[in-house]
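pinned: reference chain
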Amino acid sequence: MSAVAGIAWPPVLAGEAADLAALMYQLEQSQWLPAAAIVVSQYRQLVETAVHAEAHSAQFRARMQAAGLRPEHLATPEGLRRLPVMRRRDVQAAGEALFCTQIPRAHAPIVESSTSGSSGEPVVVKRTSVNWLIWMAMTLREHLWQQRDFRGSLAVIRSDHLHGEQMDLPTWGPPADLLFETGPSHALAVRVGIDRRIEWLQSIDPDYLLVYPSYLSALLDQFERRGLKLPRLRQIRTINETLGSEIRESALRVLGVGIADTYSSQEVGIIAAQCPDSDLYHVMAESLIVELLDEQGVACVPGQVGRVVVTDLHNFATPLIRYDIGDYAEVADACPCGRGLPALKRIAGRRRNMVQLPDGRSLWPAIGGLHYSSIAPIRQFQFIQRERDSIEVRLVTAAPLTADQERRVGELICEALDFPFTLHFVYFAEQIPPGPGGKFEEFICELV
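pinned: its structure tokens
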């Protein structure tokens, strides 16, 4: 859309839209660079960020001094690995000392954001206008990768950005409507019941749906039970939670559409987005360095699951450099699409989403794809581990379970968890309450 009155074609852009369009042009080129060339550019930018942070952040300066490092030492992956990893508790403990006392004028204004605290360790991060521009660019990149038709309607079910339970807007909002004419968007708060969600979706019949995986799972279950469809729906977008393969399969079976997943965090924005040509996730390497480390701090190889450690390359307000965000992901081989952007095979979740076995092992619980419905009418489930040898099983069911059904479901769970846990069944009438920020986790271990 042109920003100049009377000029319809070619469109002339100005201000934020012009900045976004220019950055999008560069991202279109950089995604096809060889992986080695991307790495060189990342570390060149990291030195610029480190120079500023060392001068204006007392906490970052102390980290660098303790490691015997100068900003120029971070010019290579080997140099960066000499800087100890910073964890969430380090961010909390640093307080105001973490933030830069000055930022370049072109990076203003600063916006403060707080995580939901779903980990029990909420953190506050300050981000700049440059961070906002990059967030918009990465969001728009994901739209363009998926070839979405902006003229369609968008339905959103999420916890934030809502005044009341429901909103109806004439456009998709930024970044899409900065550059394109879009159709309307509709938003619904996650706190409303499942019947209201279904009624709302059917009344809109959207082209695209943005939703958390756990809420999508519940919707798909009810759409299948009731024989309902969304005739215009072209694609589902998922954010904010770990997406299991069983939900992808269910979406195809029930609604006949695929899912495009995005991996992000409140602290650094979009970390990775699903490749348009494969099921892998491409790291947004122009804005972040992402390391996957094993428990000894060694870089993982393809096929290994490791801790996600991120470095924000452009935040001149909060130096999040080698920051362990608490997630785990699996390294992938180079994507066959030809992009030089690093690839992740899957996002595994957080350490608190791992079951702790009495023999000392920690496992990712393979519970999402279990066929509970073949035994009992289970509509929603959640597992809470508070002791090494026992687990609380939370269920929402269409009808009370018999003793035999509880026994059979329990056998299925213990087999998947590789241990004969003592199970305590707890039932909820309509919905298992989500955690802070509207997030829902199928398995939570309170021992870590």
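why pinned: The first helix runs from residue 15 to 30. Residues 47 and 72 are 6 Å apart (CA to CA).
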